[in-house]
Structures are given as C-alpha cells and as structure tokens.
Amino acid sequence: MARCEGWRRYGGAFTFGPVKWKQCRNDGLVMLEVEQEQVEKMPACMECWNEAKEKGIKILSAEPIQEKAHA
User: Closest by alpha carbon to 44, among 58, 60, 33?
Assistant: First the structure.
C-alpha cells in the first residue's frame, strides 16, 4: 500500500520552536487528484483528505486505492 503524501506542520505561531514539516505516516486509502499550483494525483489517508477539504484545496477526483490480490 502507498504511503499518504500529506504533510503535517509542527511548531510555529502559537507553540515553541521553529516550524517543522513532516510527511504523514498513515497508509494512503484514496488517490486524490488535486489542483493547487498544478494538478497532481497522490495517495491520501482519510485524515489528510478531510483536512484538504477543510482548507479549501480543490479536489478534482478521489478513487479508492485497490490492494493487489496475492497470488
């Protein structure tokens, strides 16, 4: 399964220390096609998908990621 491509911000404005960005550690459950500076497809977990919607990121499509059957 693909790792979520979402990024989390830690530190900064109302907390101590400098801003740090870390990639989400969850598995991607959906493949999102988003339009920000450009159109991209990336795996996302449910938490990052919901956060993208809350922040007003333009989501063009969302498809479930299918696990490949083991032979």
Answer: 33
